[in-house]
Amino acid sequence: MHGCHRSQRNLLLITFFMFILGSFSKLDLARAAEMPTFEAHDLVVQMPYGADHVYAEIARGTPGKGTFVFVNGLVYDLKRWDPLSQELLNLGYTVIRFALIGQPESLRLGPQDQDPKFFSTGLALSDFDLELNRVLQEFGADKTKIQLVGLSYGASVAVDFALHNADQVANLILIAPLVVPLETYQPVGRSLRFWLDSVRSWEDGPCDLYGAINPLLCLQRDYWYNSFYDYFYQNYLSERIAKIPDGISESVFKRAVFYMVRAARNFDLKLLAPSLNNVHFILAENEETPLLADQREAYSLVPQAEQKSLTVIKGASHAIPDSNPSECAQALSDIAQ
Asked: Which of 101, 121, 179, 279 could share a disulfide with 49, CB 3.0–4.6 Å?
C-alpha cells in the first residue's frame, strides 16, 4: 500500500517537473521568436574602379527607436559585435553591420579565382563612404539620422563619412578610435614614416614652390612616395598579420589589409576634430598609454559645443565590444536617448 502511494507521489512529482520544464521551454521559444535576427545582404556597389560586392546585415528593432550603424575595426570579424548587438536589440534598437571592402565577409563574395579589383587601384576613405551610403540606402536608413559608431580603425571611416554627410548622422560615436596610423607608435614604424615623409617633401617640393609658375612640375605627385610606401609597408604588415580568416588565401588577405591601412595613412583625428559635430568618445581604461593620451587630446580639440560625452569604461581593453559589451551598450543607449 505504501509502495502504491509512493509511486503515485513520484508520478505526480514527475508530471509537475515536466510541466515546469515545458513552461520554461515555451517561454524560451517565445523569447527566441521575439528576438530580432540579422538579415544578410550581398550588395553591389559602384566604386571608382568598377562594381564590387559588399556584405551587410540588419536586425530590425522597434520602429522609431533608433538605428546604430557599426563600422568595423581593421581585422574585426562581424560576429565579434554579437554580444553588443544583442544588448542593443534587447533595448529595441535597429542594428546595421557591414564589412568594409577588403574585410573577410566582403572578400568572400567576390570571385575566388582572381584578385580583388582594388588591388590594381588601391582604396581611399572616400571609397568606404560610397560603400556606407549604399548600405544605408539598401536598408532605408538614408532617410533618417543614424547613430554612427566607429571602432578603432573604423573611426577613420566614420569620421570621413560624417564630414561629408553630416545631415545623416545624429551622433558620431568613436570607440577606442584610431587617432593617427598605429605604426607611428612603434619605433620602426615611426622611423619608416619619417623617412617616407622626407621622400614626399623632396619629391613634391618643386611643385609646392613653383607649381603656379611651371605646372609641368605638378604633373605627377607622390610617385616615389607611393612606390616606397607600397614596397615597405606590404612587407612590414605581412610579417605582423598572423591569423588568416577561413575561406580566404593568405596572400589575398594580407594584401587587402595593406590596402585598407594605406587608405587611412594620412588620417589624423587631431586635425579633423575641430570640424566634427555631435561627438562622443568611448575609451578603454586599459588602452595603451600613448594611444589613450592621443584619444583624450583629440576629444579636447573638438569644439566645446560639439563635445557631447566622453566615457572611459573601467577594466576595458581596446576591443571594447568584446571585453565590456554591457557597459558599452549602456553608454550607446544613453547617447541615443
From this structure: 121
Contact 147, 68 (CB under 8 A): yes
Residues, the chain, total?
337
Task: Give pLDDT tens digits for 24-81.
Answer: 444 343 344 445 589 999 999 999 999 999 999 999 999 989 999 999 999 999 999 9
Q: What is the CA radius of gyration of the chain?
A: 25
Q: How far apart, in Å, are the Cα atoms of 195 and each of 198, 207, 259, 333? A: 5, 20, 20, 44
225: phi then psi, degrees, rounded to nearest 5: -60, -50
C-alpha to C-alpha distance for 319 and 298, rounded to whole angstroms: 19
Q: At what angle do helices 82-90 and 325-336 cross, to 10 degrees?
A: 50
> What is the layout of strands, in order, in the sheet containing 67-71?
39-47, 50-59, 94-98, 67-71, 146-151, 169-175, 279-284, 307-313
334: its cell numbers? 544613453
pLDDT band at 213 (very low <50, low <70, confident <90, very high): confident
pTM: 0.83
Q: CA-to-CA distance for 148 and 336, rounded, in angstroms? A: 10
For residue 233, CA distances in Å to 183, 193, 221, 255 come to 10, 10, 19, 10
> What residues contact 39, with CB distance under 8 A and at least 6 apart?
57, 58, 59
Rounded CA-CA distance 304/87 in Å is 31
At 72 the three-state DSSP class reads coil
> Of 3.40.50.1820, 1.10.10.10, 3.10.129.10, 2.60.40.3410, which CATH number belongs to 39-180+268-336?
3.40.50.1820
